[in-house]
Write a structure and sequence with these properties.
The complex is a heterodimer of chains A (351) and B (372). With 351 residues, chain A is mainly alpha-helical. Helices cover 71% and strands 4% of the residues of chain A. Chain A has a single domain, classed as Orthogonal Bundle (ABC transporter involved in vitamin B12 uptake, BtuC), CATH 1.10.3470. Chain B folds into 2 domains: 195 residues, Rossmann fold (3-Layer(aba) Sandwich), CATH 3.40.50.11400; 164 residues, Rossmann fold. Classes of the chains: A mainly alpha (351), B alpha/beta (372).
């Protein structure tokens, strides 16, 4: 009984969301096939991004809102790949390589800043994301076509400088990974390649923590001073953790956007940090502890709720816009609730 | 006996053909906080067609939450009785959603109003696209400002909007037209309402900047902003400090005016455009803005939803062809004249190389000058 209670308390957040999701599904009465195909698709599309948050958490740096930087790097790489007319799989591979290079640089810079803001990494990385957004706009609105060469006129603004607000990937790298291997179960389509890549990343993260580097990251996460005394170069390890997270976010964003198949030039990256973090928290992770399963369960629960909440709200209140407000309210309530629950359980753990 | 049965059957058939479409139409709009006109338009079509309209909304933060927009549109297509979907405004994600729907429902009819994505991308996928002739308005906005006595025109916008092709094009045309008429064109950068300062920051900027500009350039300065949320503070500031209000970004008597003039519209008059035009006109004259405020007599986004639904129904029934410009104009004119008699479209044209992408311009009204 005691054990059962402990399991219940330590998994309060996912259990609460499971209950909420199930009741929303029952209320919404949306076509089950739609729900299943939407969830399967979101699992293959969003999980990679959520997984990119894990390493900094283990390194004790909290939730890395800075994955927005990685997302920007991924998008930037995609613009060039589209411009160079490299199509399908080669296009995605080149984008991933180029995106990783840019993300490494950005991650390194972010790591340097975060090392000067120890203990305040979360808010610092969030503000870094805002700052980087300004730089991103500057580059893609004013430098593209003027300083940085860009040949594809159809994606440029009429004056030939600056990218348009939508870059259509159709006919270049749209669904490049998805369409390689599609398993059809009825009308539900499962995109195998993105799922395989995500599973590969799960194993990679699992094995990373078995290596010396992984152990060092863990040690830094547990106590920086002890790690320092033990001869681990704390700052270097922290920078490596941020770089890894940023690079993974860049790749994650490429997987995400090839599925969506249009890029919102100036906004696609903005909400990535918040929603990935929300999904991870819903999966039962905290700012100090997170696992691969938290990520997977989180994506499953958070996105189920996201898909059904508008219809549920609509059915409950009889007004379409209330459905939308209901979804929005839930999305942010999720984050606040998850953070409060962790604060509560952390406090409980201390006593 | 046989005759009465026949009559009964006939009556039944006639009522059925008027009452029921035999299929459903999905309507996707924003919530009232993003744009009231299209939401009210959707309410009007629900009043007209009843249960045969399924109305859903896309997120308020549609720029960041494309996923949700896509999911909402695709969800509609899973209902086999839905034969057409009308989307207004066509926020980013609409194209991706239409492509996904056409994969498993190639028969689905899409009518998109006010698309945010590029014409060359939206045009070929949607069956018909309805949009205000934004580049064309580059001329008409400057002309109406000139008519009201403007010597200068201040254009408020921000980088994200200037990355929209049509808005950037209109800005350039406005600059050119201003030069032709001898008006000084001034571009002023305002904060992006979707930026970290949010809408309040952007509105605050407008309230503070308009008096600054009027002090600098005088009262014969016309103002124009590309953003919906900025219209209310812009109208307020111009009413208080002088200046000329060229036209709202989305020209309509309901765009900003009721809020900035402090008019509350009684619930029974909510959709009554004639009533709204009259009270707005009276209030502007009362506050000394006669001859300095212009707009279109009817909210185009409302027209696009209502005409969009009518057009979609005719497309499903195959009574109008999507590429028949005169047929499409007739549908839109019918919807406008049902609301404000005596008005209709001033012009309709097709965007080149973008399928059935229709650009329309409506007649303008100047408050205090036009008779209602």
């Amino acid at each position: 009984m005691e054990k059962f209670k402990r399991i219940l308390v330590s998994n309060a957040v996912p259990i609460a969301f499971l209950a909420l999701s199930i009741s929303a599904v029952l209320v919404a009465r949306i076509p089950p096939l739609f729900l299943v195909s939407e969830i399967v698709r979101r699992l293959s599309r969003n999980t990679f991004l959520v997984l990119s948050l894990l390493i900094p958490i283990v390194a004790g740096m909290g939730l890395n809102f800075g994955i927005v930087l990685g997302a920007m790097a991924g998008q930037a790489a995609m613009f060039f790949v589209v411009d160079w007319k490299i199509k399908d799989i080669p296009g995605v591979i080149v984008a991933m390589i180029l995106g990783s290079v840019i993300a490494t640089l950005l991650g390194w810079l972010a790591g340097l800043v975060l090392n000067r803001a120890k203990g305040r990494e979360m808010i610092t990385s969030m503000i870094l994301g805002f700052f980087a957004n300004g730089v991103y706009q500057l580059i893609f609105l004013f430098f593209i076509g003027s300083i940085i060469p860009f040949k594809t006129r159809q994606f440029l603004l009429p004056e030939g400088v600056g990218l348009r607000n939508t870059v259509d990937l159709y006919g270049s790298i749209a669904s490049a990974l998805n369409k390689v291997w599609i398993v059809r179960i009825g009308t539900v389509r499962v995109f195998v390649v993105p799922i395989l890549i995500t599973v590969g990343l799960c194993f990679l993260i699992y094995f990373l923590f078995k290596t010396k580097l992984g152990q060092d990251i863990r040690a830094v996460g547990q106590d920086m001073h002890i790690a320092e005394v033990a001869g681990i170069k704390v700052n270097k390890i922290r920078i490596i953790a941020v770089i890894m997270s940023t690079v993974l976010a860049a790749i994650g964003q490429i997987i995400y956007l090839q599925d969506i198949s249009t890029i919102n030039t100036y906004n696609s990256h903005e909400q990535v940090g918040l929603f990935s973090i929300a999904a991870l928290l819903v999966g039962g992770a905290s700012t100090r502890r997170a696992s691969i399963w938290n990520a997977i369960i989180g994506v499953l629960l958070f996105h189920t709720l996201f898909v059904v909440a508008p219809s549920a709200g609509n059915k409950l209140f009889g007004q379409p816009q209330v459905g939308e407000f209901f979804r929005e309210f839930l999305a942010y309530a999720v984050i606040a609730f998850a953070l409060a629950m962790h604060g509560w359980s952390a406090k409980k753990g201390k006593h | 006996m046989r005759r009465s049965v026949l009559i009964l059957l006939l009556v039944f058939a006639v009522t059925l053909s008027f009452a029921a479409l035999g299929f459903k139409v999905g309507v996707v709009t924003g919530t009232v906080s993003q744009g009231e006109d299209e939401y009210r338009g959707a309410e009007n079509v629900i009043r007209k067609y009843g249960k045969e309209i399924i109305h859903v909304t896309y997120p308020d933060k549609f720029m960041q939450e494309q996923e949700t927009t896509i999911a909402r549109i695709v969800e509609l297509a899973y209902d086999p009785t839905v034969k057409a979907i009308v989307i207004c405004q066509g926020v980013p994600g609409t194209v991706a959603a239409m492509r996904r729907v056409k994969e498993f429902r190639p028969d689905m009819i899409f009518v998109v109003g006010v698309p945010h994505e590029d014409p060359e991308v939206v045009g070929p996928i949607a069956d018909a696209v309805l949009e205000t002739d934004t580049p064309g308005r580059g001329v008409t906005i400057v002309d109406i400002a000139y008519k009201m006595g403007a010597k200068r025109l201040i254009h408020y916008s921000f980088p994200r909007h200037m990355s929209y092709k049509l808005l950037a094009e209109r800005r350039d045309i406005m600059e050119k037209r201003s030069k032709e008429l001898g008006i000084e064109f001034i571009f002023v950068s305002a904060p992006d309402p979707l930026g970290e300062q949010g809408l309040t920051g952007a509105q605050q900027f407008i309230l503070e900047d308009v008096p600054r500009q009027i002090a600098k350039y005088g009262k014969d300065t016309a103002f124009f902003s590309t953003n919906c949320g900025m219209q209310e503070p812009l109208q307020k500031a111009i009413l208080r400090h002088g200046g000329i209000y060229a036209e709202p970004c989305c020209p309509s008597p309901t765009h900003g005016f009721p809020g900035s003039l402090g008019i509350s519209i009684p619930p029974e008059k909510k959709g009554d455009i004639n009533y709204i035009l009259k009270v707005v006109n009276d209030k502007i004259i009362e506050l000394g803005g006669a001859g300095r405020f212009a707009t279109w007599p009817i909210p185009m986004n409302m027209v696009f939803v209502e005409a969009g639904v009518d057009l979609a129904i005719e497309l499903v029934k195959k009574t109008v062809k999507a590429n028949d410009m005169a047929g499409v104009k007739a549908v839109i004119d019918r919807v406008i004249s049902q609301k404000v008699s005596g008005f209709g479209l001033k012009s309709i044209s097709k965007y080149p190389n973008a399928g059935n992408y229709y650009l329309v311009i409506c007649d303008s009204v100047i408050f205090g000058v036009t008779q209602f």
